[in-house]
Design brief:
The protein has about 160 residues and is mostly helical. The chain is built from 6 helices and 4 strands. Strand 3 and strand 4 form a beta hairpin. The longest helix is centred in the last third of the chain and has 24 residues. The radius of gyration is 16 Å and the shape is globular.
Length: about 160
């Protein structure tokens, strides 16, 4: 997602992060097969895994689950149901009928499974970027701190004053 955001010139207004619903891989690099497939697609995964926090639901405008099991886990964190509109299935941002609604677990699909997941994530990230670009949701960080502008263009004009 960060690569799509940078390519679109939105790195200053869209903050992306990744976290798992369970703590099994906390502190570890992504799977070596995923890192290799990502490298072949021009990506370099940096950073270590972390577990999603309840505060993530408050801080991020969109919290995406790759499958329905993770979607249910995220909804359990939202005990007050205050962030229901923010928690969504990633696949809903993919275009066309090329991809399934849920991102499949690549660990059981051989090498090709990792490449297919990367293609699906690329497609979905472009859909997410389009939503953010058109001001349907986003918080931005400017010199004064975090704020939610009325529109995408409000932020652009404010920053260029």
């Amino acid at each position: 997602m960060n690569a799509v955001v940078r390519k679109a010139g939105l790195a200053d207004i869209m903050l992306c992060d990744s976290a798992g619903t369970m703590d099994w891989h906390t502190g570890k690099l992504p799977d070596a097969r995923m890192r290799q497939a990502a490298k072949e697609h021009g990506y370099d995964f940096k950073g270590a895994a972390r577990q999603v926090l309840t505060t993530d639901l408050e801080e991020f405008d969109l919290v995406l689950a790759m499958d329905r099991s993770n979607l249910a886990d995220l909804r359990l964190l939202d005990t007050e149901e205050a962030y229901d509109e923010k928690i969504r299935l990633f696949g809903r941002y993919c275009s066309g009928n090329k991809f399934p609604e849920e991102v499949p677990d690549p660990y059981y699909g051989g090498e090709e499974g990792f490449h297919m997941v990367i293609q699906m994530v690329e497609n979905g990230c472009e859909g997410i970027e389009g939503v953010g670009r058109h001001g349907q949701w986003h918080w931005v960080k400017n010199k004064k701190g975090w704020k939610k502008p009325a529109t995408f263009y409000e932020y652009i004009f404010e920053e260029n004053k």
